[in-house]
Amino acid sequence: MMSPINRWLCLNSQGNSTDVTAVTTSLDNRGLAYGDGFFTTMGVIDGQILWLDYHQQRLDSHASSLHLDLDSQLLLVALQTHAEQLQQGMLKLIVSRAAQDIGGYGYTPSASGSACEIWLKSSTMLVGTAEQLRLSGERLVPMQPVSTAVCLSSQLACLPPPLAGLKSLNRLDNVLASGELQAIKAHRLASNAGLDSASVGEGLLRDMSGRWVEGTMSNVFYQLSDSQLLEPQSSQSDSLLDLNKHDSNYLTQGQWYTPSMAQSGVAGVMRQVIIDTLSNSKNPVIIRSLKDEDLSQLSQLFFCNALRGVMPMNSLTLLSGEVVGF
User: Fold this and answer.
1) Burial 11-42 (b: 16+ CB within 10 A, else e)
2) What is the pLDDT along the chain (326 residues), one digit of tens a residue?
3) Cis peptide leading into residue 312 (ω within 30°)
């Protein structure tokens, strides 16, 4: 049976779909009531799930952290069937703990307490771009057009292990940050008669410790001007704008840093793909905090996620209004 597009399906423990007309959920659903679960979004091109092995790692690690009984192998077989039907678009998967006999937050330390509900939505959308970066193993990463970024005043919650880094259902900090970013875009649209508003691609977020961690929907990688002194640059033509003409060496030139996910943020699939890809290169990615004093020293900056790939920036507007160009 063809799975419906843009409608939610409930998958049973074997990954088979229920009758979509019979799918209902209670207001007592633990994902809705407590955010007791996680989600992941997977791009699909030509009927294949992108970065399937990395998504399986997320399913396994998140299920383990949240004590959920999930057979990722069986689930991925079912997801691949849906991907083949979709051909091009996005699969969004939500996993929440099954209803419990215990009232309130509690759950039983048993098989029933670890049981989960799995929800799937297939959506048609453009995942790829005209230009792509080629990584090792013939894998391709979409390369988005160059845009600008802004620092946001919204902050991310700091979380204890094992919750930090998870793509959990508790995302209110990201919701508020995304609202702030949309307000900035709307203000620019109104004040500039449409000029430049569309070029604002992402917002940079701090956590409660004051360190800059990620975007509203993406992870961030950056280079510092001091790091450029480690090796001479051939000429000014090696600037970001030239490299962003989809030079295949974009990710391998210079020293990239990315913030730690040890106490806040989401350890994204594309973030891990890039870290792994550069692990054997001349300049492996360094996990490093991004502090206020670093912002004026930035020489390159990009955001990334599993659906949009690499999103390069040519400037960052600080909270003070100062613009740092790359």
Assistant:
1) beeebebeeeeeeeeeeebbbeeeebbbbbbb
2) 456 678 889 887 555 665 555 567 788 889 999 999 999 999 999 999 999 999 999 999 999 999 999 999 999 999 999 999 999 999 999 999 999 988 889 998 888 899 999 999 999 988 767 678 877 666 778 889 999 999 999 999 999 988 999 999 999 999 999 999 999 999 888 886 445 555 899 999 999 999 999 999 999 999 999 744 444 443 333 444 344 445 567 888 899 999 999 999 999 999 999 999 999 889 999 999 999 999 999 999 999 999 999 999 999 999 999 999 99
3) no
Q: Are the beta carbons of 301 and 295 closer than 8 angstroms? A: no
Q: What is the distance in angstroms between the CA of the first residue and the CA of the last residue of the chain?
A: 51
